[in-house]
Design goal:
There is one protein chain. The chain is an alpha/beta fold. A nine-stranded mixed β-sheet has the order 7-6-5-8-4-1-2-3-9, with helices on both faces. A hairpin with a 2-residue loop joins strand 5 and strand 6. Helix 2 crosses helix 3. The longest helix has 14 residues. The model has no long low-confidence stretch (mean pLDDT 92).
C-alpha cells in the first residue's frame, strides 16, 4: 500500500461513508483501523487495503501518534475521517501531532495533487465556506453526507502494524 488517501471510521459503516467521500473526490483509499476494532469486519469494503494498528488499547484515539506516524511514513495526501465523536477526536489529535491543517464537517471534498479543497457550512448553515489546504490535511466529513456504494465482492488485504498506544 502506497501513498494516497487514508480513511478512518469507528465502524465499517462509517468507514464506508469516508470511502464514498474519497471515491467521489476521485481517489481510492486505504482504511486505518486500531486496536479495539476488528479489521476483519472491514474486509468487504471497496478499498485499497486495511492497515490495522494494534497494541492492546481498545480506544482509537489512543493510537493517534501511531496513525500520525503511519500517515507520515506513507506520504499520505489526506486523512479523511467520518465525523462521529470518536473520529473527530482521532482527527484532531492526528492533525495536532502532524501540525497539519484540518477541515471539520466537510460536505464537499476534492483531493488534488497540490492539496485539498473542501466545502463546509458556516454561520449556522447560512453560508457554504470553501476552504483550501495546500499539501496534506485532515478532513472530518459529516456523518450521513455520503452514501456508500453497494458493497462489492471485495476481500481487502489486511496489513498488521505494531502500535504503541497512549495509556
Amino acid at each position: 500500500m502506497m501513498a494516497g488517501v487514508f480513511v478512518f471510521g469507528s465502524t465499517p459503516e462509517l468507514a464506508a461513508e469516508a470511502l464514498a467521500c474519497a471515491s467521489e473526490a476521485g481517489r481510492s483509499a486505504t482504511v486505518v483501523t486500531t486496536g479495539g476494532q476488528d479489521a476483519q469486519e472491514y474486509r468487504s469494503l471497496d478499498c485499497e487495503g486495511i492497515v490495522h494498528v494494534q497494541g492492546g488499547n481498545p480506544l482509537p484515539e489512543a493510537y493517534a501518534a501511531d496513525v500520525a506516524a503511519l500517515l507520515e511514513d506513507r506520504g499520505a495526501q489526506a486523512f479523511v475521517v467520518c465525523g462521529d465523536p470518536t473520529g473527530r477526536d482521532l482527527a484532531a489529535r492526528v492533525a495536532g501531532l502532524l501540525d497539519a491543517p484540518m477541515v471539520s464537517e466537510a460536505s464537499v471534498l476534492r483531493i488534488e495533487d497540490g492539496g485539498i479543497v473542501a466545502h463546509r457550512l458556516a454561520f449556522g448553515g447560512a453560508v457554504v465556506r470553501r476552504e483550501r489546504i495546500a499539501g496534506f490535511g485532515v478532513v472530518s466529513v459529516a456523518p450521513g453526507a455520503w452514501t456508500p456504494s453497494a458493497p462489492p465482492d471485495a476481500d481487502a488485504p489486511v496489513e498488521m502494524a505494531d502500535g504503541n498506544p497512549d495509556a
